[in-house]
Amino acid sequence: MQDLSTSSPAPDLLPDIAAHLTPNLYEPLLYDGPPVEPHLAEIMRDQFATDGIDGVLTAVNGALDGMERILSTWLRPGDAVLVEDPQWVSSLALFSVLGLDIVPVAVDDEGMIPARLREALASRRCSALVLTPRAQNPSGAALSAERAEILRGEIAAYPDLLVIEDDHAGLIAGAPARTVTTGRRAWAVIRSMSKALGPDLRVAIMASDADTADRVQGRLLIGPGWVSHFSQRLVSAVLADPEARSAVGHAERTYTLRREALIDALATRGIASRGRSGLNVLVPAPEEAPLAAFLLSRGWAVRSGEAFRLGSRPFLRVSIATLDSERAPELADAFAEAMRPGDRRAI
Fold first, then answer.
1. Taking the domain 23-242, which CATH number applies?
2. Which of 274, 75, 51, 34 shows the shortest CA–CA distance to 167?
3. CB 95 within 8 A of CB 135
4. Confidence of residue 341 (pLDDT cuts 50, 70, 90)
5. pLDDT digits (tens, 9 = 90+) for 195-228
6. What is the reported pLDDT for 340?
């Protein structure tokens, strides 16, 4: 059986982190050190600047950790937050734990649909907008330049709206960075290293306005205090190494080929699917559980969409990280065997 149900990166496509564990990597650090390792801050500042993002940098323990700290310091239980539908399961769990009211906004291949966002904003007072600019999980949506500009226009009339972008797979997303945070009062873009360098590093760098940075840093001080500088130095060493950067680029190209191979194979068999970026392909399904069970009987484990959906139609999520492109037709054949022609419809 091949497990395509988790969106973890492929282990063999991660750079060799161990090669950067040099004797001088560890340096004693006391309680009054800078929260972001200077070399990593320099690298990430340049990276953000290239994408038109200029803000105060903060280190957090992954994208979800960053979102939790931002939302818990800005919002209160009962506040409404606009989110993509379908939405990452862990984010939905976080919103629930924080007692936030979820306002779903439908997405297409280019991200949130402007008309749906406009309707949601008009429906009630919303305190925050959380979106994934690329590699959206589970749909694979990625903001186009045109869509980002339109969405910026939609939220322009709401200057107090907190905007958070979860760029969790930025380095291997297979799509350029776009942002709707330009000119906002309260905003953050969180760029995680988990998909590109490995989840166990637990490092993400957040660019934000100064107030949000202060709030998150203060929230860190009453918990872990800071993100390990040992981990931060390790990340900066990897990002500064040409060979490691080449490995990350190779991973991004490989994921793109695998994603496109499955989408093309499904299309050849008359089955619609979505996956413009990232590690996932969304396949519409008339019924999730029976189709997932059938695929499992054929040796393919995929994820049912029920846990991701707020108001969107049923689907299966296929994580392509470890799917060899040459095997994509086999999986597409299994889908075709299970789905009647009349059921092959797009969402």
1. 3.40.640.10
2. 51
3. no
4. low
5. 999 999 999 999 999 999 999 999 998 888 889 9
6. 66
Spatial separation of the C-alpha atoms in residues 146 and 139, rounded to whole Å: 19
- pLDDT grade, residue 164 (50/70/90)? very high
Check residue 26 and give its pLDDT: 85
Q: CA–CA separation, 325 vs 342, rounded Å?
A: 27
Cα separation, 2 vs 209, in Å, equals 43
Contact 141, 132 (CB under 8 A): yes
270 torsion bin: left (phi>0), alpha (psi -120 to 50), beta (else): left
* Tens digit of each residue's pLDDT (9 = 90 or more) over 51-87: 999 999 999 999 999 999 999 999 999 999 999 999 9
pLDDT value of residue 27: 82
Query: In Å, how far are 167, 254, 299, 323 from 257, measured between CA atoms?
Result: 21, 5, 22, 10
279's tokens:
């590690």
- Helix, strand, or coil (residue 278): coil
229-240 and 38-50 are packed helices; what angle lies between their axes, rounded to 10 degrees? 50
> What residues does each domain of the chain span?
2-10+243-339, 23-242
Q: What is the dihedral of CA 230, 231, 232, 236, to 10 degrees?
A: 100
CB 206 within 8 A of CB 163: no
What CATH architecture is 2-10+243-339? Answer: Alpha-Beta Complex (3.90)
Among residues 69, 23, 25, 1, the alpha carbon closest in space to that of 237 is found at: 25
Angle value at C-alpha 253, between 249 and 256, nearest 5 degrees: 140
With CA atoms as reference, report the closest residue to 163 among 175, 144, 148: 148
The span from the CA of 82 to the CA of 60, in Å, is 23
Rg (CA), the chain: 20
What is the C-alpha to C-alpha distance for residues 266 and 334, in angstroms, rounded to an integer? 10
What is the rounded CA–CA span in Å between residue 185 and residue 161?
Answer: 8
